[in-house]
Structures are given as structure tokens and as C-alpha cells.
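Ticket 4471: requesting a sanity check on a complex prediction with zinc ion. Repro inputs:
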Amino acid sequence: MTDTPYLVHGVFWPAPPEQAGAPGAPPVLRLQAPDGTFLETALDDGTRLGFRLAAGRKSCLGHHRVHGPARRDHVLCRNQSPAARGHQCERCFVADEFRLMHEFHRGGGVPPGLRSYLMQPHWLYVATFANGASKVGTASDLRKWQRLAEQGAVAASYVARAADGRVVRILEDLVTRDGGLPQQVRSAAKAAALAAPAPADRLSSHNAALADDARRLLSTAGETGFEVVQETWKRPGLAGRLCSVTARHPYPHELDAGAHGFTIRSVCGPFVLATLEGTDLEFVLDLGRLKGRTIELGEHRSEVPAVQEALF
Ligand SMILES: [Zn+2]
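Returned C-alpha cells:
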């Protein structure tokens, strides 16, 4: 349907393949139709994606109620209110149970469903992005792989398996305080880095060294309730081309207005390497910029910019 306005919820990665080496399912662009149903558009190598931005501000994406490790309800925003706090309106922000996670970490009480979610084992990881910028982070057991896939990491290692979500956040703060690793790398910095990525093998060795430092810190910290682990995160095959040193350019248009259309070659997190009709050049886009925007799908195409191909 070409004229249906869809609210974009973002790029989501499915669970990894059960068999090692099997190609995983591609990520999807998750779209909310006006009747509250969802459309998921696969973002695979060769997928043509065309859309036009509707006018207006970003809308609220609703909130979550948590019932356990694997069960949560996504409650859509009642009025599709404008987003006021991140991707939520004030009402959904207050109602969101995941917001209470930080209370739990500080010893506060949380609802039973969220408590059972937080009591599952959690993983501590070190992730490295395309320019070498790195962070420490946490993933629940059931989202161990996806948590890294959705952030657009080029290389990552698990450094500890913690008994629950409280212990893992204590470890995370410890690695930040004593190891100097931040807990966030901004999307704009990740996208800019993917426009001129460092060689992936160099990023892998940099990540391995940082992960070893973190493991050393943890094993002498005197905390309990976790074990140090040696495990490498496996980057999805679809991200390979975007994470390699090929010629590409930053996408020259803002994703907050206008018509866009391109063919996807490679995807890493919410970042896409795409070709435009009328040129062989490849461009890096951050589809995460569409989150909260309303789009209409259709046979649109991006205007080809006048860029001068770098000489190699
Ligand atoms: Zn809302």
C-alpha cells in the first residue's frame, strides 16, 4: 500500500541461527500501521527500500510492561502523541517499566514481572565500533546476541556472565570507573565511523585487548555473583561489507524530510550500505534516524549527489 502512513519503530535483529555457520534471518524495519498492526520489512542484501517522510514531529513509540524474562507487552501510545522524552511522550515515559531497571540496580523495589526479568543471568560485554571507539555494556541472557547486533558493533567480546541484572550493572560501572570504558557511543559517531571504517581485523584485535583488560579488572575486584568468560560475539554475515574497507560516502540527505529510495547491500545495527539508482557509488545511512517518524512506502528514489569518487 503506497499511501498508508506508517510510524517507524526502528531496525530489529532476529535471534541468530541455531546452527553455527548458517545464514541468519535479516533484520527488519518495524512499521506501525494506523490500525495498530505491524508491518516488518526485511532489510536484506538486494532489498529495494523506497519511502517518503510525512510532515510533522516525531511521535511516541509507546511503552513496555514486563512479565518475565521472555514475556513483555508493547503498549502502543494511546493518541500517538508527539515524542517528548527520547522516543516517548511524557505519559508513556512514566508508564514504561524498563525505566525502573535503574531503581533495581540502586536497591529499589520493582514490579514482580520486571523483577523476574532482571533475575535472569546477564552478560557483560565490550563492543568496538568502526573507528575503534569502544564501550562496556550489558545484555540479558535471552538477548545476548541481538543486543550487540542492534547497536552496530564491528567486534565484541563477552567478558562476564553475571547471576542477575543487578550484579551485571555493578560490574559495568566498575569497568567504566576503573577501566575508563564509557557505557555509550553516540549513533552519529558510529555512522560517521562506518563511512571510513578501520580494517575489521585491527578492530577485532583492539577489542580483544580491551576485553582482556576488563576481565583482569573484574577478576581482582572482589565482587561476587559472576564468572569471567572468554567468548567472542559473532558479527552477522550481512554486516560484512559495511564493516570492510570499501569505497563509500556518507548519505548526503537528511532522513527527516523528502523522498528516499535505494538498494541495500549490507546492514550493521541500524546502519545500511546502499546503492542509489544512477550511480555505482555506495552510501552509508542510519535508518535509526527514522525512529518515531511517519513514512509512506512507495517507488521513491534518492537524488544522486554530485560526489567525486576518491582515487585509490
Ligand atoms: Zn505515548
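Notes from triage: The mean pLDDT is 93. Leaving this open until the requester confirms.
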